[in-house]
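Need Pyrroline-5-carboxylate reductase's 3D structure for a figure. Predict it.
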Amino acid sequence: MLYKNITFIGAGNMTSAIIRGLIADGYPSDKIMATNPSQAKLDILIADCDICTSNSNDDGIAFGDVIILAVKPQLMSKVCAAFKSKERLSNKCFVSIAAGIPTDRLSEMLNGVKNIVRVMPNTPSAIGQGMSGVYAHDVVAQENVQFVLDIMRKVGDTVLVDNEDHINTVIAAAGSSPAYFFLIAEAMQAEAINMGLNKAQARKLVQQAMFGSAKMLKENEDLEPSQLRANVTSKGGTTHQAVLSLQNDNIEQTFARAMQAAVARANEMSKEF
Ligand SMILES: NC(=O)c1ccc[n+]([C@@H]2O[C@H](COP(=O)([O-])OP(=O)(O)OC[C@H]3O[C@@H](n4cnc5c(N)ncnc54)[C@H](OP(=O)(O)O)[C@@H]3O)[C@@H](O)[C@H]2O)c1
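Structure prediction for Pyrroline-5-carboxylate reductase:
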């Protein structure tokens, strides 16, 4: 991998996760800078990762070949407007990890720069098990797209989409979905406790069953999820009864509606910022 200078504008949770992944993989720490208005998060990154830091975003712009915009979506416009040297922006590759801001809008914020990649990561990135969707406009050099994919693979896996609308589907399927799985865990744990187990027992049973199922899915990519389900569902058995109950409650439509709600919100957000 070519070691370009990478700047993270905003040193919050997602920045910290990606930087830790890069450092763990041997990326040179003197090729990484993070900027943040307050010092405390930078101090932690200096202590843990020995990277370059600054309280000035303009230092970050001067340093980076690749600039990762990692501030909250509602701050993006203000942060970009404050970059001082607008001419310098055109030599950079910008990466936005903010939900709901399309590349056209980002380009307006960045003085017309088109060299923009959108990445939608998720929180398991913090433990190296993230899933990121990546979209790049045709004008972005293949070398830059590959570099961004390589960075995100340090904290998990990636899917490249060729239509920007699909980034919102990425949000529904992977960006937001850890919360769906946590909700399922919450509900199952509560019922196991209701049935008489203690909290520690309930937690262990549910989390390991979820982890094992996820691992089976991942390690059997040639098998459809429906086949894996059929393999553990003998007709007339306990699993069959439970799955029938979920299907009678329209579990498929429930998830479809939830994912559509996530996409609808992402579409709304694209008009807000
Ligand atoms: N976390 C996720 O699961 C996730 C998933 C996908 C995408 N994202 C996106 O990733 C972005 C960052 O999310 P996050 O969870 O890492 O948020 P976060 O922890 O709140 O981090 C944002 C950081 O931006 C800093 N900041 C505020 N104003 C700034 C400025 N003018 N210049 C530079 N930095 C500034 C904040 O500093 P202070 O705290 O000192 O104000 C904070 O450290 C968001 O756009 C979010 O939508 C997050």
